[in-house]
Amino acid sequence: MKINKGILYILLGASFFGFTPIFAKLGFNYGYSLGQITIAQMVISFILLWSFTLIKRSSFKGLHMKNMLQIMMTGCFVGLTSIFYYGSMQYLPASLAIILMFQFVWIGILLEWVFSKIKPAPVTVLSIILILIGVFFASNIVNGDIQGLPVKGFILGILSAITYAGFIFFSGKVAVNVDPWIRSSLMVTGSAILVLILFMRDIPSVLPLEENLLTIAAGVSLFGAVLPPLFFAAGAPLVSGGIANILTSIELPIAILSASIILSETVTPMQWLGTAIILAAIAFNELGTGLFRRRNKSA
C-alpha cells in the first residue's frame, strides 16, 4: 500500500513539472520577455517555498554559513536551467526544447564519471546510445523538420540539460543532512538572486505585476518549483531510487502531450517513437544497473 502511494505521489510530481513549458510558452505569446517571466517565477517561488517552510516549522539543524552558501550556489543551477530552458522555447517548439533538456540523463552520467570517478556500467553506455537514437527520431531530423530553426535554440536547449544535470549532481552532494524544505528554500533563494542580477534591467518592467504575468509566473512556480518537490518528498522514501527515476521520466511524454494539445504543436508518430525509445532507455538503465550491482555483490 505504501509503495502504491509512493508511485502515485512521484507520478503526480513529475506530471506537474511537465506542464511548466505551457506557461512559459504562453508568457512569450503574451509578449513578455525571458527576463520578466523568470524574475516573476523566481520571486513567487521564493515567497511560496519560504512560506511553506516557515509554516511547517522546519528545523535549521545542521545549517551553518558554509553549507548555506553551498546550497544557494547549487540553487543557481535551477535559475540557469530556467533561463536556458525557457530561452530555448523562444526559438524552438516546446516539444523539441523539452527533448533537448531531457538530455540531462546521460549528461549526469558523464558528470558522475568525471567528478566522482564512477565509470558507467556497460548497460549504462548502451542506454546512452539508445537515448541518442531516441533524440534522432524525436527531433524529427529524418523529415527535415528542424531545418531553418535557429541554432541558438538548440544551444540553449543543451545548456539547460547541462545545468539541470549539474543541479541534480551537486544537490545530491551538498548539505544532505539539512532539512529538505530548508534546502529547497535556500536553493530558490540562490536562484532568485542570480536571476535578479542577470536581468536587473528587466526588474522595473515587472512592476506593477500585471494579471497575465502573475498568472504565468504563478503557474510556472507552482508546477515547477513547489508542487513537484512536495510530492517527490512524500513519495521518494516509499519506493526505491531506481523506480523513482523511472517514474519521474513520465514528465517527458506529459510535457510533449500538453504541448500538442494545449499549444497545438504538431507531434509526429516518428517523434513519439523517439520519445518511447528515450523512456525505454531510461528504464533499461535504471533496472539494468540495479541488476548489474546485485550480480557484482553476489559474486
Automatic annotation (TrEMBL):
Source organism superkingdom: Bacteria
Domain EamA: 5-139, 152-284
Its membrane topology: Multi-pass membrane protein
Keyword Transcription: no
Transmembrane feature ranges: 7-28, 34-55, 67-86, 92-111, 123-142, 154-172, 184-201, 213-234, 246-264, 270-292
Keywords recorded for this protein, A-Z: Membrane, Transmembrane, Transmembrane helix
Cell compartments where the protein resides: Endomembrane system
One matching Pfam family: EamA
Similarity annotation: Belongs to the EamA transporter family.
Main localisation: membrane
InterPro entries (alphabetical): EamA_dom, EmrE-like
Protein name (database record): DMT family transporter
Cellular component annotations (GO), alphabetically ordered: membrane
Membrane among keywords: yes
